[in-house]
Structures are given as C-alpha cells and as structure tokens.
Write a structure and sequence with these properties.
3 domains; six-stranded mixed β-sheet; mainly beta; five-stranded mixed β-sheet; 50% strand; Immunoglobulin-like
C-alpha cells in the first residue's frame, strides 16, 4: 500500500486600498482609459498588517494497490444498423451494446442506469460466459420534453421545438459485483443525444390564401392575411390553411391535447380580435375561438395529420403595413411545439 502526501500552508489576512479608474470615449471613435495604482490604506489607517492566521497541513491520498487503474468496459449505441453513434432519434429502436475489456469465466450481469429517467429503460444486460465479452439490449425512446437549460431552474423542461429538440441522457453501466483488488475499472458512463419530434406545419394553397414570411427552420410556415380583402393587398384573403403532421418515425397512433395560442409581434398573447380556427382530423372537426388560446384533444398518427383553417374576422381601417402574429401549436411533451407566422393587414380588435 502506498501513500502520497503534500505539505500545504494556508495564510489569511486582509488589507484596505484605494484605486481610481478613468475612461473617456466619443462616438466609438476613440476610447481612453487610465487606472491609478492602488493606494495602500492599511498602514495609513493604523490597521494591523500581520497575518490573521497561518495554517499548515498535509494533504494525503491513498491509491488502491500499486497499479494504474484502466477502463475495462465501454458502451456503444447503434440505430438503424449503422455505425456506433452518440445521436439517435425517437420511435426507432436503439441497440445498447456493453463491451467488457476481457471475457468472464462465469456469466456476468451489468446494471444500467439512465439520467434523466426514461420509462421502461432496461435495468441490466447479461454477459454470457465461455469467452463472450459483450451483449446488446434494445430500447426505443419516445417523444418527451427537453431540458430548457435555465440556470435558475436546472430541472425545468419544455416541449421539443425545431430549434431545441435534443434531450441529453447519461447512461451508466456497472459490472455487479465489482472484482476485488483489481486494477481494471468495470464502470463507465456515456452521453446519448436523443432528437425529439415537433409538429410539422405547412401552408396549404387554397383560393384566397397567400404564403408569407416564414421562420428559417420552416420555409412553408408562414401566410399573409388581409382582414379586409376589399382593401390592399387584394390578392390576400382573410384566411389561411395550415397542414399539421407529426414527426417522421412515429409508428403508433397517439392521442393527446393540442393548445393553439395567438401571440402578437412582441410574443405577448393577443386578445380582442375575432379570430377562429377550424381544426379537422379525418371526419372530425372542431371550431375554436382564439382569445388567445384554445385546446382540443386529437388522435394523430404518422399517416394521419390535421388541417387548421384560420379566419381573421375583425377588420380595421386601411393600413400601409402589416403586423406579425404567431400561431403557437403546442402538443406538449407527446407531440412537441412549433409556430406558424402570420402577416396580417387591416386588422382590428373586436368591438
């Protein structure tokens, strides 16, 4: 058994000093700054200058054995029969392969843990004896909410969107029981990025409907609406048709709530205008008033989408400009969230 030791000394104290900083700049043409060196006020104020305390100590570590610890286990993720990858998609099986650095003379069990949790994730994988050093289990990730990255609320999550669709997991494999007095480490952790689906929105060409500016991630996600078609621009009507489908790869039929919300150009919920939507799924149809939100539970599959027909019914005085509105389509953790841009002319609030 060996022991490593280091002698350390901690010294504590305080001082008081004064320093001036001066800066002059004009219209970003020039900038001049100067810092006057600090004036030590400790002695001037008659304060003690000796150290408050001095602490001497020894920091020691005790390695296990006299060998270098070496990793003896790895995890690989494979999807679609391709090469090992750290990025996968939902609704397609992922092969999780655990590889030992050496075969075991007896069957071995490797426990698996995933953070954050994933429903139904396998808890272990068995490694057969007789020269076999690896085995594989399969798991299919489903749509889920993703971490927001809020430093003030690290656990906060939100529905997946086209610009924030990835949830990162930490998968840990541990051989149980661990070999005693071994220099080989039979524990490993690997990161896995899972890309979630979000609703796919697409402008549909119908009489009186015109395309409009759209976000960069969805070039067909925008329409131009004229609340008063008798006023310019006369080529645009007061309605827009929007196709709604769920992400590719979703094999099962899913039922869940969708919330439609109308936001103004400041992304604040917009109320007061007479705006309604007709949501159609197969032979079913719902008429919803957006003031500013409406919710409906629908059943969708990969080959069965929905159509949203939006009508802006409150017109206003002629204007030579349009205002940007956003239709937020929020399917929660199950379906994800997306937005459709609306450039609206000659609108008003409902009197």
């Amino acid at each position: 058994m060996s022991r490593l030791g280091t002698n350390v000394t901690y010294t504590g104290g305080f001082d008081v000093s004064l320093s001036l900083y001066f800066n002059v700049s004009a219209c970003k043409i020039f900038s001049f700054c100067v810092t006057i060196p600090a004036l030590d006020l400790t002695r001037l104020l008659g304060l003690p200058t000796e150290n408050i305390y001095t602490l001497e100590a020894t920091v020691e570590s005790q390695p296990v054995g006299s060998c270098i610890l070496t990793p003896a286990m790895s995890i690989r993720f494979v999807q679609g029969g391709g090469n090992p990858t750290q990025s996968v998609t939902v609704y397609e099986p992922v092969s999780i392969q655990v590889v030992l650095g050496q075969s075991t003379p007896a069957p071995a069990t490797v426990s698996l843990a995933i953070t954050p949790s994933a429903s139904g994730f396998p808890s272990s994988v068995s490694i057969p004896a007789n020269g076999t050093s690896s085995n594989t289990v399969s798991y299919t990730f489903t749509n889920t909410c993703v971490a927001t990255g809020d430093p003030d609320d690290p656990g906060a999550t939100a529905p997946a969107t086209p610009t924030a669709s990835t949830q990162t997991y930490q998968v840990t494999a541990t051989l149980t029981p661990q070999p005693q007095n071994s220099c080989a480490v039979f524990t490993t952790t690997a990161s896995l990025n899972v890309s979630n689906n979000s609703p796919i929105l697409q402008w549909i060409n119908i009489p009186g409907s015109q395309p409009g500016p759209a976000p960069s991630w969805g070039l067909g996600q925008g329409a131009t609406i004229n609340a008063d078609p008798s006023q310019p621009p006369t080529n645009a009507g007061n309605s827009a048709s929007i196709g709604l489908t769920i992400g590719q790869g979703t094999s099962a039929t899913e039922s869940g709530p969708f919330t439609l919300t109308l936001l103004d150009e400041q992304r604040v919920p917009h109320t007061g205008s007479n705006v309604n939507v007709q949501l159609s799924v197969g032979n079913q149809q719902w008429t919803l008033q957006l003031n500013p939100s409406a919710m409906v539970t629908v059943t969708l599959s990969n080959n069965r989408g929905a159509e949203i027909l939006l009508h802006w019914l409150s017109s206003g005085p002629p204007q030579n400009y349009s205002n940007r509105f956003f239709l937020i389509v929020d399917g929660g953790c199950l379906f994800g969230q997306n937005e459709f841009w609306l450039d609206v002319w000659n609108w008003s609030v409902r009197l």
